[in-house]
Amino acid sequence: MRADAKKNRDRLLAVAGAVITEQGAEASLRDIARRADMGLATLLRHFPTREALLDALLRTNFDELAARAGELEQSSSPEDALVSWLRDCVACAHEYRGVTALMTAALEDPESALHASCVTMRAAGTGLLARAQAAGVARTDIDGTDLFALVAALAWLGDQPSLAPRADHLLDVVASAILTGAGKSDAGGGPEGGTAVGPARS
User: Fold this and answer.
1) Phi/psi of residue 138, each to 5°?
2) Could you tell me the pTM of the whole model?
3) Which of 169, 124, 182 is nearest to 148 (CA)?
4) What is the per-residue pLDDT across 87-116, written as a single tens digit (0 to 9) for each?
5) CA–CA separation, 49 vs 166, rounded Å?
6) First and final C-alpha spacing in the chain
């Protein structure tokens, strides 16, 4: 990529990040281009679709989440690793308001520019969930897709002004529901035990 083209691309990403944070994932591409002092055609040469632009914004975070899953697997107990990753993943999905709907759709759409990144993120969570299930500290009637759905739901809560103050508390509730009695560090987490240990479904 030529130096001037890279400069334009970097400028578009910086402006897009600010605009989407302010207006949400459905922000006008024309407005992003205008704020970057470029034409819409220039933006579309770099990012042909809204999903391509969002993928460029989110890919670094998604890659970091995948790497984080590997680090947690090596450094933390199965239950702590799963809950820590869940928190990180919700924070990432909430960074750009409204992106969770596009992520959820992209997961089932191989043609979407976001598809590969979302599949990678789901796989990272599935691995941590399967490890916790094998250790007997996570319920076995959920799989990686369920975990991805919970991330999307929790990130959506954070997007709602009237519910955002409850988002952290509800994340704790969800994490407690995922873990069986053996994986809960607080006494108020519900009955001891859980379903029989089994692998996470893909």
Assistant:
1) -135, 145
2) 0.77
3) 124
4) 999 988 888 888 888 888 888 999 988 899
5) 34
6) 38
